[in-house]
Please model this.
Amino acid sequence: MKMLIIEDEFRNYNRLRRMLTAYDPTMTIEGPLESVAEARQWLAAHQGPAAPDLVFADIRLSDGISFDALDTLDDATSLVFTTAYDEYALKAFQYNGLAYLMKPIEEEELHQTLDRILKLRGNSHQDKPSDMQGVKELVGQMRAGNYQYRERFLIPYKDGFEIVNVNDVSFICTEHKDTRVYLRSGKFYSLSMSLDELERQLNPRRFFRANRQYIVHIDSVDGVKIYFAGKLRILLRGYENIDVMCSRERAPLLKEWLNK
Model:
């Protein structure tokens, strides 16, 4: 069985390759393809018998999103998206019947996904549905504007409302069951939304969910300090007394987010 990995982070590629080899040592694993241009060229040249049986595609690559490389995907090829912080798209994947794995990929979830795909592919009396139809529908929805990120907040204040641009936000946190958005100016406002709701609405390139209590803006991160037991402490510009801790499990995601 031939696998292809589209991934621009070599560490993530190595981790996935090790887990695939452990699942089935007889697999042929191609890649990594690190860009949209490289993936398009490779897929166009590998059609029919030369096509991979399964492609693992990171959503965001160095030169764009992998959706733009997949229009040359062979109809017989199965597709699994991998993503570290594109949570906004997960419901869309489910709606369009697309498989996905969240990074860091867990071995048990990978095995379950492989078992499900291999069972479907091995069902000779049932034609495999084309993943490309789901990709086309998803891209069409995104380009139609169905997945725009929040740009501002309209916040009740005194006897009216104030408009807060998301680019003015330093961080968002929960305090005493209250959700608060803190600005770079030092002001803060209360929001009638949960952090889970906000996380889905904010651009994951600009905002990162550090833990259950904090979401931070990229332009407000002044640095990162190594902490006890593999944790990381995020230093916020203008809020030196605020401790934002990132767990050991989420530390690789934080470093990947900051290194884009």
The CA atoms of residues 23 and 197 lie 36 Å apart.
